[in-house]
Amino acid sequence: MKIYLNSVKEDWVIDRLKSEWSNLNKDITTRHIFNADIIWLIAPWTWKKVKKLKNKTIVCSIYHIDEIKFDNKDLIEFKERDEYINYYHVISKKTYSQLKKITNKPIFVQPFWVNKDIFFNINDSKDLRAKYNFKIDDFLIGSFQRDTEGSDLKSPKLSKGPDRLIKIFSFHYQNNKDTKILLTGKRRNYLIRQLENEGIPFYYFEMVDFETLNDFYNCLDLYIVSSRYEGGPQAILESAVTKTPIISTDVGVASEILSKESIFSMDNFQNSRPNVEYAYKNAKQFLTPEGIKPYTEYFKKIYEN
Questions:
Q1: Predicted pLDDT at 68
Q2: What is the dihedral of CA 259, 262, 265, 266, to 10 degrees?
Q3: Peptide bond into 44 cis (omega under 30)
Q4: Is 0.90 topped by the overall pTM?
Q5: What angle do CA 8, 298, 29 make, to 5 degrees?
Q6: What is the chain's alpha carbon radius of gyration, rounded to the nearest angstrom?
Q7: Closest residue by Cα to residue 205 from 239, 182, 171, 176
Q8: Which segments of the chain have a pLDDT < 50?
Q9: What is the pLDDT of residue 230?
């Protein structure tokens, strides 16, 4: 059995997952698409590059269906792609519920693994903060995913909820002037502009290596996911395994990983509370190498059938 994963070369989560898969499954991974028995469209938006390979078994990952933007045009394109797909993969039960309404293909539900060599708890936040010149008294709130829609770098990506996030940041800053925001990732333009307009202090590191990213998680007092729609997000699992306090809207895997008091709406976010141990207990099953085994077993089952 040989599996080919496509890539997007964005130097972010999907490419990292592809690299981790290849390193942990060298015996069943091929770099040559024509040698593959199974093509894993881990980046589904690139599907047109493989649509001529009808003799191959194709597994397509779908992360979330953005109901804000999912109109007739999107449905037509989905149905066109669906003709080439044999199996689907989703990373949350919520996306499964969305996807099963528009396809009759088999759907595999499994959150992505978390590389334990990259993401882990460091019980020494004082030294970590000194390393990056963060003040020990800062109440650091983190957000590490993009918030701007498209190439204009102005419009908020509403599915990610940056308009919600700035309201929560403002609430914390009004109640605690030691609050500072820690941002990483590309396309943070919307939030940066809003933070500047409201006078909320922040740190911004556009792209960081994995060691630094793990350090940042371990520096935080709070991580916030404010999305309207998500597949994961991976930040929920990464926060959980690094024992970073996190609260989230009820999207993606949030209800599968976080406690009820850690899940909020915009009507009650002031009352949400992180439960670090609860989240870690639920997330640790996804740490490598155990977290990747359900995928290899699933592909083996497909191949044998």
A1: 65
A2: 180
A3: no
A4: yes
A5: 45
A6: 20
A7: 182
A8: none
A9: 86
| Preceding omega of 274 cis (within 30 degrees of 0) | no
Task: Report the C-alpha gap between 272 and 168 in whole angstroms.
Answer: 11
Angle at 35 between CA 14 and CA 17, to 5 degrees: 15
Q: Is the dihedral of CA 54, 59, 64, 67 positive or negative?
A: positive
Spatial CA neighbour of 125 closest among 143, 137, 107: 137
276: left (phi over 0), alpha (psi -120 to 50) or beta: alpha
Structure tokens at 53: 């390979």
Q: H helices of 113-188, where?
A: 125-131, 162-175
Total residue length of the chain: 305
Residues 147-173 as b/e (b if ≥16 CB within 10 A, e otherwise) read: bbbeeeeeebbbbbbbbbbbebbbebb
Domains by residue range for the chain, with CATH: 3-113+288-304 (3.40.50), 125-286 (3.40.50.2000)
Within 10 angstroms of residue 265's Cβ, the number of other Cβ atoms is: 10
By the 10 Å C-beta count (0-12 exposed, 13-18 middle, 19+ buried), 258 is classed as: buried
pLDDT of res. 69 = 66
Q: What is the pLDDT of residue 14?
A: 85
Q: How many CA atoms lie within 13 A of 134 on its CB side?
A: 31
Q: Identify how many contiguous H helices and E strands the chain contains and give both numbers.
A: 11, 11
One-letter amino acid identity for 222?
L
Check residue 50 and give its pLDDT. Answer: 72
d(CA 63, CA 121): 27
Q: Which helix (H) or strand (E) holds 302?
A: helix 293-304
CB atoms under 10 Å from CB of 263, counted, come to 19
State the residue for tokens 């371990």: 218
Under 8 Å between Cβ of 93 and 109: yes
CA distances from 189 to 51, 185, 276 (A): 35, 10, 30
φ, ψ (nearest 5 deg) of residue 109: -110, 115
Locate 82 and state its tokens.
Answer: 């669906």
